[in-house]
Amino acid sequence: MKKIWLALAGLALIMVVGLVGCSSGTPSNGSVNVNLNGQQEGIWVNGEGKVTAVPDVAILSLGIEAQQATVAEAQAEANDAMDKVMKALEDAGIDRKDIQTQYFNIQKVTRWDNDKQNEIIIGYRVTNTVTAKVRDVTRAGSVIDAVAAAGGDLTRINNIAFTIDDPSDYQAQARAKAVADAAAKAKTLADNAGVKLGDVKYITESSYIPGPIYRGLDMAEAVPAPTTPISPGEMEITVNVQIAYAIAE
Hints:
single chain, alpha+beta, Translation Initiation Factor IF3, Alpha-Beta Plaits, 5-stranded antiparallel β-sheet, 8 strands
C-alpha cells in the first residue's frame, strides 16, 4: 500500500512540473520574459526653488532669578520682579497672548561643609522664564532694554530667536521656481533625446522652512548701550518638486 501512495505522489509531482513548464510566461526556448510594466515611464525630473526672506518676528526668552534664605522670601522677590517685567512687556506693546511661561523652578542652594562632610542648605533660588513674541523686529532691542531696566539685577535674558510669522507667500514663490526648474530640465532632456514632452503625469512636493534661529545675548555688554542692537539676518525657504512627463507620440 505504501508503494502505491509513493507512486501516486511521484505522478502528481511530474504533472505539476509539466504544467509549470508549459506556462505562457516562459518561452519554449528556455529564456525568461521580464515584465516591464512596473517600471517608471516618461521623463522624471527634480526641481528646486529657493527664496530668501527677512524674519518679521522676534521671540525673546527672558525672565528673572532670585535667591534668598527661604523659599517664601525668594518667591516673593521673584514675583515682584516678574510683575515689573510683565508690565514692561505690556507697556512695550506686547500682547498677553504673545507671552507664555516657558520655565519655572524652585531649587535649593547648597554648599559643601568640609568639617561635617555634608551639604548645607544656604538658600533657595527661584527661576521664572517666559517667551515674548515681538511682532515688530525693529523694536526687539528696545523691548530688551525695557525688561532689563524693570527686572534690574534679577533680569535674565537667555536668547532671542527670529522667524517668519506667515511663510505661505514665500513658499508660493519658491514653488513656482521649483516647477520652472523642473520644466527646464525636462525640456533639455527631451531635446537631447530627440523626443517631445507630453502631459504631466505625476508631481510631488516637499518644502523646508527653517525653525526659529536662536542667538545668545550677552547682557553685560548689551544693556549699557542706548538701544540693544538687534539684527534678524535672513532665512532661506526651499521647495523641491518631482515631476514626471509623458513622452508625446
